[in-house]
Amino acid sequence: MTTRITHLRTALHLAARGIPPLPLRAGKVPFGNCRTCAKNACSGRPNMKTPGPCTCPAPCHAWAAATTDPRVLNSPQWAAAWRQAAAVAYHPGGAGLTVVDLDNAAAIAWACATLPATRTVPTTRGQHWIYRGVMSSANAVRHGVDIKSRMAYARWLGPGTGHLTALPDVVRALIVKGPALAWPVAVAVPAPAVGGRCPHRTPAYLDRGIAMAEQQITEAREAVHATVYRTFLAVLSTHGRCGCLTETHTARLFTAAQARGESPRHCTDAWTNALTTLGLSHV
């Protein structure tokens, strides 16, 4: 009960400031659509292609549920969601804001060197840099960098520090560029074994292995995350200890994974987890 009241009070406080909030379930995900709106069968936000509030009385349609209306936030239809809520989020675009979500130290270092100072909020893994202005949202615009503004939500983690700065062109330009695939240059490739010889007969053996791994990822029709991880694990278990792998080979795997919808961050996480599982993190 205390958690529910705390989240609701936070939401009402945000709404009073013109920031439209919404409840989040555990895992930082929004509540699923109600039965009427399941599979976008309703007419409220059928494909979520245009910004605006959801017309359903329940907290449906993810970001589109965000509202500044205290009557809605306090309504019986929202009561169950607040009881189950694990956190509060908000719709940055609805508040006239853009959040640059920096997910790691390298992303923060890039922001410090590239972006104008603005209000910052610490997150679990990095920082939110908040600017005054609205733009389209996009994930993985660079390694570890997401843009959250229109048709997106960001977790509320407090007001942050610093003064809001106008949204700069350098941030807008991040989503203007074409959707070129990228792979993180900081990915660890196991070093060659000291004093050892590669057990593989010819370089063609490795090339065939990488080609088969690419094919396995490309042909995945479901469970893409799991397929990518298992493929990385298989490649590293065979070639991770002898020094065969190069950045070129790793780039081929990351490119195949991103072509199936994986973000650079997910690729990095899968690669790092595979290294750790095989005890290669410090090789």
Note down, in words, how this protein is organized.
By secondary structure, this protein is α+β, with helices and mostly antiparallel strands. Helix content is 36%, strand content 14%. The chain is built from nine helices and ten strands. It has helices spanning 2-16, 70-73, 76-84, 105-114, 169-172, 203-218, 224-239, 247-259, 264-277; strands at residues 21-25, 29-30, 87-90, 97-102, 119-122, 127-132, 138-142, 145-148, 154-155, 165-166. Strands 4, 5, 6, 7, 8 and 10 form a six-stranded mixed beta sheet that branches. A four-stranded antiparallel beta sheet has the order 2-1-3-9. Helix 6 runs antiparallel to helix 7 (224-239), helix 6 (203-218) runs parallel beside helix 8 and helix 7 (224-239) crosses helix 9 (264-277). The chain is elongated and about 70 Å long.
What's this model, at a glance?
Strands 4, 5, 6, 7, 8 and 10 form a six-stranded mixed β-sheet that branches. Helix 6 runs antiparallel to helix 7 (224-239), helix 6 (203-218) runs parallel beside helix 8 (247-259) and helix 7 (224-239) packs across helix 9 (264-277). The chain has nine helices and ten strands.
Secondary structure topology:
Layout lengths: L1 H15 L4 E5 L3 E2 L39 H4 L2 H9 L2 E4 L6 E6 L2 H10 L4 E4 L4 E6 L5 E5 L2 E4 L5 E2 L9 E2 L2 H4 L30 H16 L5 H16 L7 H13 L4 H14 L6
Parallel strand pairs: 6-10
Antiparallel strand pairs: 1-2, 1-3, 3-9, 4-6, 4-8, 5-6, 7-8
Task: Give keywords.
alpha+beta; elongated; 9 helices; 10 strands
Terminal CA distance reads 49 Å
* Gyration radius, rounded: 22 Å
* Unreliable residue runs: 45-51, 177-181
How many individual helices? 9
β-strand number? 10
Helix/strand order: HEEHHEEHEEEEEEHHHHH
Strand content: 5-15%
What overall geometry do the principal axes of the alpha carbons give?
Answer: elongated
The largest sheet, given as strand count, sense and whether it forms a barrel, is: 6 strands, mixed
Main structural class: alpha+beta
Helicity, as a percent range = 25-40%
Mean pLDDT, nearest integer? 82
